[in-house]
Amino acid sequence: MSRYDAIIIGAGHNGLTCAAYLAMNGLTVKVVERRKVVGGAAVTEEFHPGFRNSVAAYTVSLLNPQVIADLDLAGHGLRIVERRAQNFLPAPDGSYLLTGEGHTHQSLAKLSERDSLEIDAFNAELETIADVLRQFVLRAPPNVVEGVSLNTLRESFNALESGAILRRLSLEQQRLLLDLFTLSAGEMLDDRFESDLVKALFGFDAIVGHYASPYAAGSAYVMLHHAFGEVNGRKGRWGHAIGGMGAITQAMAASARSHGAEIETDAGVREILVENGHAIGVTLDNGETLRGRYIVSNVNPTLLYTRLVPQAALPAPFAKRIAQYRNGSGTFRMNVALSALPSFTALPGAGDHLTSGIIIAPSLAYMERAYQDARQFGWSREPVVEMLIPSTLDDSLSPPGAHIASLFCQHVAPTLPEGKSWDDHREEVADLMIATVDRYAPGFAQSVIARQILSPLDLEREFGLIGGDIFHGKLTLNQLFSARPLLGHADYRGPLKGLYHCGAGAHPGGGVTGAPGYNAAQTVLRDHQRIFL
C-alpha cells in the first residue's frame, strides 16, 4: 500500500496547480486521473487525422498570472498569444461590431455615436471593480463558522481584511458592485447602451456557462466574472495557448513533476476511504489502495459527495445541503475541421476578425429567446454560438491550407424534456449549430470536413461536468464567495477531516484560472504546518 502526504483526485488544471504548490513545498504528492491524459477539460486532442484542437475549454484569459509565474509555465513550454481582434459580432442586416485595439471605435462609428462614447467609460468601470475583486481571487473567502473558537477569530480577521479591500471603492463604485452582484446584465446594458450589438457584446459574457436569460437577476455578476482576465499582462484581453489548452496543463504537469509529484493516468477513484470521520485514502477502479494525510478533490462537488464519499460518512445536515447544489450550464461543444476559412456576409474575406471570438447572438432579445426555447424544447431554434478559429493564430493545429474551429453553443437544456436523450439528438443539434454559422457565413457548412460533438451528456461522461456545467456549479449568489460550495466550507476544507476541495466548485469558481488549486494548496500547507511544525 503506497502512502503520500497528499492525494489529489483529478489531473485537471486546478488539481495540477495544487499538486505543484504542495510538491514545491516538500510534500509527497500523488495525482490520480481517470482519463488516459492529464488536463481534465483543458486538453488538446486529435479529433480527425491531422486536426487537433482544445476539446472542451477553448480560450485563455482567466489563467492567473501568479500561477503562471510560480509554476514557471513559460519555462515548461507554455506560450500564449493575444488575439489580433477581441470580438466580432455579425448581424443579420449586414452590420457588425468588431472590438479590440484599432477596431472598436471605428466599428462603433457606424452603429452608435452615443455608444462609441459610452463603451470606454463602461469598460473602465468594470475594470475598476474587477481590479479590486482580483485581490480576492488568490485568497480564501471568509468562512462562516459557528461558536467561539480560534477559528472564529481567524475568520473574523479575514472578514475585516475583506471589508478593508472593498472600502477602497468609492461610494458610487460600491453601488455599481452591488448592482453587478444583484441585477441582470440586461437591465444594466439597456440603461447604458442603445445598439443591440454593443449590448450583445457584454450580454454574451453574462450567459457563458450560465443557463439563464441575460435578464435573470444575478447575471450581471457572470458578466463581471469574465472581466477578471488578462493575457501577458494586458488586462481585459483574450488569447490562445499555442498547441491548444492542453499546452497549459502539460506545462502544469511538467512543473508538478519537476518538484517530485507523481501523476498517474487511467487511474479513476472508486471510493474515498473514511475512518472515524477522517478521509485517509482512496481506492482506485483497479482495486489499488492509496493512503494519504490530505485527500484533495478536483472533481465537481456533486460527484465528490454522491459517488466518491460514502454517504454514511457524511454529516446529515451537510448531505442534505450538498444534494441541493446546483449544476447545469446549458453548454454544447463542437470542434470542426475546415477545408477553408469562413467568409462572413457582414465582413467578407480574411482579416483580424477571424482571430477573434466570433459571437453569433446579435441582441439580448436573441439570447432571451434562445434560453426560453431551450427550456421549452430542449435546445434553441436560433442558438447562441461563439466560434473561435485558433488555427489563424497557431498553424500547429491543422494541415497547411486547412483550419479548425471551436464552437461553444448555447442554450441547450442539461436534461432534455419528455424523456428524450441527448444520445438520440446530438447529431440533429450539431447540424443546427453548423447551419446557424452558415447563415452568417454562407459556405461554412460545405467547408466542414469532420466534426467532434460534445452534448451536455457527453461533457458529463467524459469530463465529469454535471449537466455540461463548465463551472462545476452555477455562479449564482448563493454559490459564490463564502457560499461556494456551501456556507461553512468556503475554506477549501470538506466536512471530513483531511478532505479538501481544489476544483472550480470552490472559490473563485469556473474558468481556467488555477486559483482554486492555489488556494486549496495554501490551506493544506497551513494545516500541515500546524500539525508538523
Automatic annotation (TrEMBL):
GO molecular function terms noted in the UniProt entry: oxidoreductase activity
SUPFAM superfamilies: FAD/NAD(P)-binding domain
Domain Amine oxidase: 15-328
InterPro entries: Amino_oxidase (IPR002937), FAD/NAD-bd_sf (IPR036188)
Subunit structure, interactors included: Interacts with COX5B; this interaction may contribute to localize PYROXD2 to the inner face of the inner mitochondrial membrane.
Purpose of the protein: Probable oxidoreductase that may play a role as regulator of mitochondrial function.
Protein name in UniProt: Pyridine nucleotide-disulfide oxidoreductase domain-containing protein 2
